[in-house]
Amino acid sequence: MPEYATAQAERHRLPMRKLVAASIGNAIEWYDWTVYTAFSVYFAAAFFPGELALINTLATFALAFFFRPLGGWLLGRFADLRGRKPAMLLTIGLMAGGSLIIGLLPSFHVIGWAAPILLVLARIGQGVSLGGEVSNASAYLAEIAPPDRRGRYSSFFYISTGTALLVASLLGYLLTSVLTEQQLTEFGWRIPFVLGGVLGLVGMWLRGALEETEQFEVNQPKAKALKNPLLLTLTEHPKAVGQLIGFSMLSTLCYYTFFSALTPFAVKTRHADATDVFLALSVATVLFVALQYPMGVLSDRYGRKPQLLVWSAATAVLIVPLSTLVRPGLGGLLVVFCVGIGLYTAMTSIAPAIMSELFPTELRGLGIGAWYNLTVAIFGGTAPLVIQAFAAFDASTLFFWYIATGAAVAFLVILTLPETRGTELR
Fold first, then answer.
1. C-alpha dist (Å) from residue 62 to 40, 127, 261, 312
2. Is the dihedral of CA 211, 26, 61, 99 positive or negative?
3. Taking the mean position of all CA atoms in its chain, how far away is CA 123?
4. Largest Cα span, the chain
5. Range 7-14, long-range pairs (CB < 8 A, 24+ positions)
6. What is the CA radius of gyration of the chain?
7. pLDDT tens digits for range 72-105
8. Each residue's pLDDT tens digit, 363-384
9. b or e along 168-205 (b: 16 or more beta carbons within 10 Å of the residue's beta carbon)?
């Protein structure tokens, strides 16, 4: 039996063309989404007047999250009815267009209140886009994977995401190194947004070559026959909805804390050097990308559930001590980002598999899209705003206790999950 399994493993070849095409599109989506928070400290005053410019800019970031459930619902249902491929093409077009608009948008001093209004509209479009992107790209990767290799295939989702984050972080490091703060405020922040818009065209071209999944084609008639599909997720799959919300709560808190909220918090509140913050984040992001595939392999061999339990338990115990190291000095920042993000890979490497295994194919796009994005809107979109609000009252430690509490809740929810390693998708 071991020899047969080895022979099977040797015969299997990853469909790299499909994986890379889908993942590069996803990378561009996340690059566009991430640069907004990474450079918010530099462009806030361009769109909002007064001392609350950064708060208003982060509030706009949070507002866009509340359109993610709408995007997940509309584009998820669109993907269940018309296919994963057309849905993924639509999402990347919306995201790249929003990025280009922000990069070229005149400032408040030029066009007045039209500037923040247009900024909000661009962010709403990106929120709708990303709401559909996560669910549809996750479903695509899970549906093309053999049952015993779904963890490996799923890992490409966050390999692409991590690559996008690394590009955004390195770009931040480069720009903060070669440009003065005044130059960054005047024009430097526009560079990553315009670049994101241009890269979107590349992503659309790559995704245009993808084939539709067999899972979708077989189950499309079932999807068309469904009435009130969103209600069906609650009436027929309430446990799956609750489980998705439970572990996604911690996942989104981890993501938006380490990849978004900590950057402005470390610079503005803890007075860390911006270059050190971007460098530490870049190093941790390399680790993040490197660990995705090995973690996916581990989940295929030993199971999803043990991996998720270790991640949630370790986060609950370590997040508050780690927060004390967010201060000036590269060493402490490296520990914070590398430990926190390294642990997080236990979840991200298998997130598409875990979410896709909760719902049948005819409800998969909608089920993930609606409930995952609602959770992200509540807990992720508000993370940068909440951490800044706590800091304004000199109580920033409470934010990290908030994450620790979320980790404890997630641990209890994960205990209720069945082990899905090697199972067939419904």
1. 13, 10, 12, 24
2. negative
3. 15
4. 71
5. 12/146, 12/149, 14/152, 14/153
6. 21
7. 899 999 999 999 899 999 988 888 888 899 999 9
8. 999 999 999 988 988 887 677 7
9. bbbbbbebbeebeeeebbeebbbbbbebbbebbeebbe
